[in-house]
Amino acid sequence: MVVNEGQVAEAVRRDSPWWRSPHWAATDRDMLEAAGSQIDYYPLSLANIRSGGLYMLYGPRRVGKTVLVKRSIQALLAQGVNPLQIIRVTVDGWQANRLGTLYEYVVRVLTSSVGDGPRYWFIDEVTACRGQWWSVVKNLRDNTHFGDDCVVLTGSTNQDLDEAIKAFAGRRGPVDDPDRCLLPMNFGEFCHSLSIDLPSVAGLRADELMSARARETWMALAPYTDDLVAAWQTYLEVGGYPKAVGEWRRTNQVAVPTWQALWDVVRGDAITSGMNEVILGAVINGIGVRLSSPTAISGFAEEVGVARETLMKRIDALASAFLVWRNPRADNSGNADLRKQGKLYFLDPLVAKLPQLVNGRSQVDVTRLNEQQLGVALLQWNERVRPGSVRSGDWITHYRNASSEVDFVGKCADLGTRMTPIEGKYVSDSWRQEALGLRNSAIGTGILATRDILDATEGEAVWAVPSSFLAFALSFSGK
Fold first, then answer.
1. Tens digit of pLDDT for each residue in 294-341?
2. Interstrand relation of 336-337 and 179-181 (parallel, antiparallel or unpaired)
3. Alpha carbon distances (Å) from 78 to 7, 9, 74
4. Whole-number mean pLDDT of the chain?
5. Source organism's superkingdom (predicted)?
């Protein structure tokens, strides 16, 4: 897409309606939709942004990044910031070098009355620019007042983010947390959004799930077991995309246009890269069938009918788009061994259900979704304690030998300490029998994540804790 100065002006005026009216939010489609969702959900991924900072906000499409940006703009306006100091523009499909045109024309013409005063830039979908957008941003930070401004770049793909963040070294301003992530709601946010009456508990770290403090937490949650189990079942059905959660609250179902829009996101990049919709459907379905099992890529590729390299590229693209995540096998030291077969999971239950919804495939087994979302809870926790961990690093792994397997082991991304091992068995009885694999493994200790059984006897090598308890306690900061 070629973007000239006239098109820049049109795009910025369209995307910055507060320039024209202080009541812009009352007619803004995104803000009206968020208000009409009837859910209490205000993520803090852009909290405390400041002048001079260069922030990267990333996460999947349809997860609410645009609404979050607009709410942040509302907050700045409420603080008395001049509307012309706040610039938002969506640059999806732009040539990267046109970001320079954007900066120059906005400063020289559209907001010239501000002079050299600080500006707040919200540049949406910068990762969808064509070309090395990070080089243009780096040059602007080095050679213009853009380096003194607050800049928020948003993106829906992990591709090239490592290269970008490397280029931004020393240019991100006086901030400690420039990487920000917005993922689908965690379980705690989901419960809060649906106004489920649950006790306030202190967040637990992933390395203290069998501690004395954890035991106190499990006992505090025990009277609410029925409520938590019911909420967890709903979470496995609905997922954490805000629009889906809002529709479930109002109508007890996820509307067809919502999951269809999510499917459009999944297939858009695939079709652009030359993969047809039938094969893409087979890939998504194949991942769903393999949830909780090590994935042999060669056999998977043969099943789908594509070359191994083609399948790997498609899985890489899904992972880059924050739709799929990898759980590699751990070596004897607990580190990821990328030479061995790993597991693949989706980042949200609604994505896992797309083959069923779109093509009428078999429903994903709830025990596999339970395991997936336990892993996602750990993934989200790691991202909170160490921003950026969701896009780089193999912190969550699984253990496997000839006779046993443990679903989730690994290390905490902030301190490098060992996580409490978790084996997901969505059972309501015979938990001790199910725990034998964990108990008799080389690890020997950990938590069996059940459906509704709690047994946290002090001194026991294996505890039984409901999956909903674990996900709920991990939903809070845990720092």
1. 999 999 999 999 999 999 999 998 999 999 999 999 987 778 888 888
2. unpaired
3. 29, 25, 6
4. 93
5. Bacteria
Look at the alpha carbons of 113, 119, 122, 123 in this order and tell me if their dihedral is positive or negative.
positive
The strand pairing partners of 477, in sequence order, are none
Mean pLDDT along residues 71-96: 96
pLDDT at res. 271: 61
**Which residue, 366, 103, 120, 139, is CA-closest to 232?**
366
Q: Exposed e or buried b for every residue in 275-287, given b needs 16+ CB within 10 A?
A: beeebbbbbbbbb
Would you state the pLDDT for residue 336? 87
Q: What gap in Å lies between CA 450 and CA 463, rounded to an integer? A: 10
Q: Which residue has the higher pLDDT, 448 or 476?
A: 448
Contact 61, 183 (CB under 8 A): no
**pLDDT higher than 70, residue 38:** yes
Alpha carbon separation from 76 to 46, 125, 130, 172 (Å, rounded): 12, 21, 30, 20
* Beta strands across the sheet bearing 179-181: 86-90, 120-124, 150-155, 54-58, 179-181
State how far the Cα of 158 lies from the Cα of 324, in Å rounded to an integer: 12
Mean pLDDT of 29-33: 95
What count of other Cβ atoms lies within 10 Å of the Cβ of residue 132? 15
Model pLDDT for residues 382-393, shown as the tens digit of each residue: 999 998 899 876
Among the listed residues 425, 469, 477, the one whose alpha carbon sits nearest the alpha carbon of residue 223: 469
**Token pair 């259900």 in the structure block, residue:** 353
Task: Indicate the CATH number of 5-181 among 3.40.50, 3.30.300, 1.10.10, 1.10.150.
Answer: 3.40.50
